[in-house]
Amino acid sequence: xxxxxxxxxxxxxxxxxxxxxxxxxxxxxxxxxxxxxxxxxxxxxxxxxxxxxxxxxxxxxxxxxxxxxxxxxxxxxxxxxxxxxxxxxxxxxxxxxxxxxxxxxxxxxxxxxxxxxxxxxxxxxxxxxxxxxxxxxxxxxxxxxxxxxxxxxxxxxxxxxxxxxxxxxxxxxxxxxxxxxxxxxxxxxxxxxxxxxxxxxxxxxxxxxxxxxxxxxxxxxxxxxxxxxxxxxxxxxxxxxxxxxxxx
Length: 248
Ligand SMILES: C[S@@+](CC[C@H](N)C(=O)[O-])C[C@H]1O[C@@H](n2cnc3c(N)ncnc32)[C@H](O)[C@@H]1O
Ligand SMILES: [Zn+2]
Fold this sequence. Notes:
By secondary structure, this protein is an alpha/beta fold. The chain contains 5 helices and 13 strands.
């Protein structure tokens, strides 16, 4: 963690509270291990392997379903490294779609919410500052996108411990569909909205419940074999929570 990262971080219990870096070993401006304490409440979070761990254990918003997903993701990311393809020759069309949606991010501050090991975060490689956030610590330990000094943060996307209006661009690929309730999905969008600067841009992908899937009677909500929750979205359903351009 960069020694200036605490300027970007907030208490995971109440994002109006600032965090203070207590001690910790600093080497060339990098903090590898230490503690972040809230200036106003009793919350204390550790920095481990250079990653601030801003999940609160007594947080009821981290439901059983989320805990199960965190454990499952930790396991699946344990021995994986992000595949190495270049943007120009990218094989994933989703990568190209994100790249186009985000546009030229030179000089901008960006955040990837639910970054996994960074397979999609690489589209932010021109941004001035990149925060990459996931609730799987295993994912962050294996984060491997070609970016200059990304700020890796362990946190819940539905409770972003980040300063208001601090990013020009937010991206989130294949995450919202795993948030287990409609209220939490609204919280997710609300939190991203809060940390974006006015006029900031969110580029988001979700599972699409297309006609083919409806005809095949694939359920619009359920659990994958890994027991990870999923829900699917129709673009017509996106109106009440947010506005913007939706393509499927
Ligand atoms: C399907 S993976 C996608 C990873 C990455 N965005 C990509 O496109 O390669 C979903 C990711 O979202 C993360 N995730 C799910 N729910 C989350 C939450 N509430 N807070 C933070 N991360 C979450 C998971 O740990 C996982 O890394
Ligand atoms: Zn606090």
